[in-house]
Amino acid sequence: MAIAGRPVAVRLRARVPALTTRVVARLLSDLPVYAELPHEEIAGDIADIVQHNLRLFADVLEHRRAATDGELAQQRDSAAQRAEEGVPLDAILTAYQVGVAMCWEETARDAGPGDLPAVLEIMDRILVLQQQLTSAVSGAYLEARQILDSQEHGGRHALMAALLTGEDLDGFTRRTGLRPAARYLTMALALAPHPDETGAGLPQGPGAGVAARRKIRRIRTALDRFAGTPALTALDASGGTVLLPVAEPPPWDGPGGLCGLIAEATRAAGVPVTAAAETASPDGVPAAVARNAEIVDLVARTGRAPGLYRLADVLLEYQLSRPSEALRGLAGLLSPLDAKPELLHTLETYLGHGLDRRAAAAALHVHPNTVDYRIRRIDRLTGLSPARPADLQHLSAALVARRSV
Description:
alpha+beta; 19 helices; 64% helix; 9% strand
């Protein structure tokens, strides 16, 4: 099939990159909901699906046939993702109509009177493809929304609520027919904000909401893949609680381990993830969840790096965070430094770099001799020096206690 003596499919494929850019720009200018999507999504998923549709139309014209079911799989997947992100269906269908119209304009641009038969056939092919796209996209979107809505009000959420509140699980099973797993991997997650949540535009605008939902969806996908079954989750943009049914406690490191899961979740979401994990029986879920949340909070308050933690990693901080008179006494060891914030910061940095004066100096942007001088001043004010092993233990404990009171 040719127009102006040139094969239409060949010419269209050659113009796909430039036409993709024009279609995406048109969507951003004509459809407000697309303009509010994260830039990552526009440059990634949206541009990819536009390009896929243009190449599909070229194939349809070249072989003079309708699109196959397999060729529409990517459009269905894209529609399901937009449904999870809360993009309205009418906006998605309008976007497809815009793309089809621009594709038609590009194809028929050089047509002359002698090309009328080819133009009519192209019009027929494009109308058939548009009908196929509308049907595939609408069906996938509505199916995804139905699943999401049923999950929102369904048994999995009721089961999670029963586990978290310590409800009588035998009674819950008799009432609902849902039986808890023998064990659950309980996790607390803290998610940093994605740049698209706080980037261009209002931080709390629709685009930020889409970015947050996108981040949560990617975290859930990683969790579901790890568990081999849908995870029980209560997540928002800042994090939350996860329960994964497991036959045995999963390994911490190595293949199939929890450290790998958190690394994958971090990569998928594009944000730092801090997590605490513990395997528990159904009756032990409430206590495990509470401990996990406290561990994540301790990690944040003590300035540790994102990653996966367990109670053994924060034993000192955990114990010192228990309310007691000793806690205030330990924190008071550093009260002479209250009026000298530069000394307190130097102490924290020095200890945090393993008593390496040069590394601490680099982090503080001062000369190593300045670090030595400040450490001597800390000794004079508090009577404690990191150079003395017994004092080092007290200084470390006092810093933890100070963050906890």
